[in-house]
Design a protein that fits this description.
This is Glycosyltransferase involved in cell wall biosynthesis. It holds the Pfam family Glycos_transf_2. This protein folds into two domains: about 200 residues, Spore Coat Polysaccharide Biosynthesis Protein SpsA, Chain A (Alpha-Beta Complex), CATH 3.90.550; about 80 residues, no CATH class. The chain contains 13 helices and eight strands. α2 links the parallel β2 and β3. The longest helix has 21 residues.
Amino acid sequence: MKISVIIPTYNRKEQLLRCLESLKSQSRLPDEVIVSIDGSTDGTAEALAHWDSGALPLRWIEGANGGRAVVRNRAAKVARGDLLVFLDDDIRLIPEGIAMHEAHHYRFPNSLLSGATLEEEALLRTDMHRYKAYLSRLWLAPLAVYATEPMPADRVFLSVANMSVPRQVFEQLGGFDERLRDAEDYDFGVRAVRAGVPVYFNYNLVAWHDDFITCASYIRRIRQYKVAQERLCNLKPELHARNPRAYRPARGWRRLFYRLFSHPMWVQWIDREVFWIRWLPRSLRYRLYDWVIMAQAVHFPSGQTS
């Protein structure tokens, strides 16, 4: 089995180089690594030209900024491998990662596999970093049961930050929907299940995620995802009208409750780690973060968080 690793990137050359370093340390080297540069202006191509790739078979392609779905499809079209492994540019794959992707597809051919994208605890510096690491484990650990049995249609999870798919299956499904600027991986997973392609998740196949958020940046990210989910429902109501991942507005007393946490000052207090928040018990502190983030990202998203 020949393996092509595809990494889209946009103006994140430092994170990209760390991702590539993790690939140099793989117990099973990929047969090619394609970096797909999405209109970057930070000197990514020059950095790659001067980077010591060692035994890693690296090449890169450049194109106008088209978004994540476009840039991934662009690389997939020129990939030579039988198996496509998609990684984000801000992750570091554990040394056994490529071998684990390969082993899965020998055991379960013609399927999709997603690994866990987690924050490495040794690198966490702020309480928001630790909160996000806690959330990632809370969300992903229950999916560990799907390492050897396919996910049911109503529980599809697929993260293209750490995902593999046979090229033939990728082409049969039509690749990622280029009309989408976000949530293209979730849509791809739903379409796969509808087409009879099983989707698996391996919690032990870890990619460390070097995305060190603030409360403000996390709220912006959820707002973007909310817009993407709404667009999915509008574009493909037959697939996503009952999307379990779609955010729904609070009503009645719950809306009044969230309004209490809709002022931008909450975000500033959290990111500054003001003393009275810092001294709250962790369970209550994280609950407060939940309320503020949901209030300002979902229920009252018009406020400023910068």
